[in-house]
Amino acid sequence: MTHFLDIHKTSPDDLRHMIDQARSMKDSRQGQPKGTTDAETPLAGHMVALIFEKPSTRTRVSFDMGVRQMGGQTMVLSGADMQLGHGESIADTARVLSRYVDLIMIRTFEETTLLELADHATVPVINGLTNRTHPCQIMADVMTYEEHRGPIQGKKVVWMGDGNNVCASFLHAAGQFGFDMVVSGPETLDPEAVFIEEARAKGVSVELIRDPEAAVNGADLVVADTWVSMHDSQTTKERRHNQLRPYQVNERLMSHAKDDALFMHCLPAHREEEATSAVMDGPHSVIFDEAENRLHAQKAVMRWCLGV
Ligand code: CP
Ligand code: NVA
């Protein structure tokens, strides 16, 4: 079964194929991401279930539009409204859904839910974000970087702030696409060691630098994300804000990056917290290209999963 569960579980060749196909599908729309039908409709006759156990704007709309453009149909399901949210096992849910639909995308809390679903499904499963990773986002981010600046291989990507699920998928991508990473944040919010070790084992450099200005020095790409993720308890909010405030991406911090550095944020953002509006709306920012490219990148991911 060709699941898309994480970037490090997919071969570099397959990842490269998906990025290239995403760019070519985007080009073929000639600057018009909207519109419900592509010239080619490889998902005709396919039904895709999109399951959300957490809120979403980009993932929900971009997957739904992507399926429609490729000629398929979607069911958008809320975990709370399914029997899954009322005690039915993940394994039985996987077996049942596999009798009805051709592909399942799930956004969930625990990574174990995703893995168990994938274990028992007889159709491909796509990770639409868990507490640990967010691979579809980073496929869009790699595509966005390369559109603006060419190959990401060998570049220096600096992650500022919480070493969270999005950071983890960046570390996976560093190993697979061959770029170096610096993670800058308080020690208590470092990424899990396994993500760092796996990237280093693939031959790329991963440094943890506490001083934000030193970290950003010479960066090709600076990335920020929310200080409190959906899986984090709200009771930690104040402590996280206090710890992460020095890592805000503002114009002063960006001035330490390369002149042509890009700024990314997967959104949703809390403006003036993890990043200022001056940066988010400034000349380095490609945040809305990232959002658009979720659509194109995920279309390629779905085609890869379905072999169409
Ligand atoms: N970046 C992202 O996944 O956004 P949503 O939470 O809106 O899906
Ligand atoms: N780290 C964020 C990403 C949201 C798209 C979260 O998990 O809430």
Rg, nearest Å: 19 Å
Structural class: alpha/beta
Distance between the termini: 14 Å
User: What is the strand content?
Assistant: 5-15%
Q: Main beta sheet: strand number and arrangement?
A: 5 strands, parallel
What is the ordering of alpha helices and beta strands? HEHEHEHEHEHEHEHEHHEHH
- Poorly predicted spans: none
Q: What is the assembly state of the chains in this entry?
A: single chain
Strand order of the largest sheet: 7-6-5-8-9
Identify the bound ligands.
phosphoric acid mono(formamide)ester, norvaline
List the helices and strands and how they pair.
Elements: H1 12-28, E1 47-52, H2 58-69, E2 73-78, H3 90-100, E3 103-107, H4 111-120, E4 125-127, H5 135-149, E5 156-160, H6 165-177, E6 180-184, H7 193-201, E7 206-208, H8 212-216, E8 221-224, H9 237-244, H10 251-254, E9 262-265, H11 277-280, H12 287-306
Parallel strand pairs: 1-2, 1-3, 3-4, 5-6, 5-8, 6-7, 8-9
Bound molecules: phosphoric acid mono(formamide)ester and norvaline.
The site of phosphoric acid mono(formamide)ester has 9 residues, from helix 2.
Structure description:
This protein has 308 residues and is α/β, with parallel strands linked by helices. Helices cover 42% and strands 13% of the residues. It has twelve helices and nine strands. Strands 7-6-5-8-9 form a five-stranded parallel sheet. A four-stranded parallel sheet has the order 2-1-3-4, with helices on both faces. β5 (156-160), α6 (165-177) and β6 (180-184) form a beta-alpha-beta unit. The longest helix has 20 residues, at 287-306. The radius of gyration is 19 Å and the shape is globular. The model has no long low-confidence stretch (mean pLDDT 98).
